[in-house]
Amino acid sequence: MTMPFYVSPEQLMKDRADYARKGIARGRSVVVVAYDDGIAFATENPSRALHKISEIYDRIAFAAVGKYNEFENLRVAGVRYADLRGYSYDRSDVTARGLANAYAQTLGTVFTTESKPLEVELVVAEVGDSAEDDQVYRLSYDGSVADERGHVVLGGQAELLAERLEEGWRPGMALAEVVRLAVDVLGTQQDGPVRRLEPTQLEVAVLDRTRPRRAFRRLPSALLTDLLVTDAGEG
To answer: How many whole angstroms separate alpha carbon 199 and alpha carbon 190?
Structure first.
């Protein structure tokens, strides 16, 4: 009689975590950084159609790394959650914290009960009336949630890029400064010089607290070109 194969719960959770981390590490990083008028998001993404940074609701945005089909399903679910809650109650009742909690439950349930975890890492951000009111939550593949302040990096080489970001960031920076910093951070390599990224290789968006209702907007390539050319000229 064949004995059943036994795997301890600890080993099973470790294997799932390793599997998810490897999938996430293969994705290009996303940088989220606060500036004087809001929150900026940047990633290396040459596709004009498949976005890693998206609007969820009036003042809430979503960024992700990992498997596109998995985080796209989560994004769509987040939009539906926000629309339903805003319609059923009030638009002010839709918050980044509530959305992060909903995502955490989904990610945690899949991690513990399904055959494989979701290979995704998320950021849910909400811009407030002032920098002190901004909310940024990072969610891991296992449903854990971290409340971030100032800046956060997702994806491969996150620790290396976060160190570089920490060195260059300070509170109250202007949009042009944080965009240049984010692009510089995204070009950082473990070994070798910083890669120069062209505007066509980038996806950049902001939550702008000065906009009246819908705070999310994408920065077009023309604007990015102006910013990066200015940066090169100053250098």
So the answer is: 22
Domains along the chain with CATH numbers: 12-234 (3.60.20.10)
Q: Between 1 and 42, where is the model more confident?
A: 42
Q: Which residues of 193-232 are buried (b: 16+ CB within 10 A; e: fewer)?
A: eeeebebebbbbbbbbbebeeebbeebeeeebeebbeebe
Contact predicate 231/209, CB 8 Å? no
* Distance in angstroms between the alpha carbons of the first and the last residue of the chain: 73
CA 60 to chain CA centroid, Å, is 12
Burial label for 191, CB within 10 Å (0-12, 13-18, 19+), is exposed
Give me the mean pLDDT over the 146-168 stretch: 93
> CA-CA distance, 151 to 160, in Å (whole number)?
14
pLDDT at 135: 97
0.90 cut: is pTM over it? yes
Three-state SS for 204? strand
Q: How confident is the model at residue 235 (pLDDT cuts 50, 70, 90)?
A: very low
